[in-house]
């Protein structure tokens, strides 16, 4: 990729804007992104990117707060130093990875539509790598049928985990069927808008599954387990009639309390129709060929 000195200068300016705290905590990720060691997405579908301010301020991260403003405020000094991700379960042998190890995977920019179950949507230029590369490295056994993800549990870092009555049961967990996890659209993201992820967006490492509702895209991952049976996930346990295991974006299956037919893109006034599998039908419909999508919602 050809980089002009001006582009490089602009990147440095962006880097400086991140502030000292963020610089220290994610200097490693910064240096990799700063060096532009990721391939850019040519955006063939010409998706209009959501304004960066909106995508980094209108967030859902219950561990900090259910209030979107407060979540951003509390996430400001989120410290990701010495972050480790453990891989265990049905594997040849358990593995521990540092962010340094993680950043050795080939990083790419991926411009994806993102649809929250709450009916807002956005288009984000993520930076990450295909989860399948990590799975291949981990060498799961033939018994591994599902991949389960867990967010950090740390009452000092996450105010809602420390509350007398936490909003949901922590740690937050999510899971994918192995073929979903191996799908080339499924990525682990370390950045967005050409910069490292901010605390509120799931630093230092989060999942992004663009054809599923946003709650599947679990943030600040510390544990990845390979398991034989379908795991119960946080939202499924919270309200099984409202949040299914699959959570595929589907305009024809309503949430029990609201329709999923339309969505409002952040920054836009009018709503627009929601697309089947969030616009990734061609790529992923075959994964669910023989399934009743109303039952397996
Ligand atoms: N991961 C954790 N650990 N905790 C959360 O509260 N919220 C989910 C998902 N991942 C959540 C999470 C929901 S409901 C959505 S819509 C997306 O994160 C929002 O991602 P964003 O805030 O980066 O837009």
UniProtKB/TrEMBL annotation:
| GO molecular function annotation | metal ion binding; molybdopterin cofactor binding; oxidoreductase activity, acting on a sulfur group of donors, quinone or similar compound as acceptor
Quote the EC number.
1.8.5.-
Q: Which UniProt keywords apply?
A: Metal-binding, Molybdenum, Oxidoreductase, Signal
Q: Which domain of life is it from?
A: Bacteria
- Signal: present as a keyword of the record? yes
Report whether Signal shows up as a keyword of the record: yes
Q: Per the entry, which co-factors are needed?
A: Mo-molybdopterin
Q: What class of enzyme is it?
A: oxidoreductase
Kindly list the biological process annotations in GO that this record carries. protein repair
User: Record's SUPFAM superfamilies?
Assistant: Oxidoreductase molybdopterin-binding domain
Q: Per the database record, which ranges form the Oxidoreductase molybdopterin-binding domain?
A: 77-235
Q: Which InterPro entries match?
A: MsrP (IPR022867), OxRdtase_Mopterin-bd_dom (IPR000572), OxRdtase_Mopterin-bd_sf (IPR036374)
Q: Which family does it belong to?
A: Belongs to the MsrP family.
Q: Assembly and partners?
A: Heterodimer of a catalytic subunit (MsrP) and a heme-binding subunit (MsrQ).
Q: What does this protein do?
A: Part of the MsrPQ system that repairs oxidized cell envelope proteins containing methionine sulfoxide residues (Met-O), using respiratory chain electrons. Thus protects these proteins from oxidative-stress damage caused by reactive species of oxygen and chlorine. MsrPQ is essential for the maintenance of envelope integrity under bleach stress, rescuing a wide series of structurally unrelated cell envelope proteins from methionine oxidation. The catalytic subunit MsrP is non-stereospecific, being able to reduce both (R-) and (S-) diastereoisomers of methionine sulfoxide.
Q: Which PANTHER family match?
A: PROTEIN-METHIONINE-SULFOXIDE REDUCTASE, PROTEIN-METHIONINE-SULFOXIDE REDUCTASE CATALYTIC SUBUNIT MSRP
Q: Which protein is depicted? A: Protein-methionine-sulfoxide reductase catalytic subunit MsrP
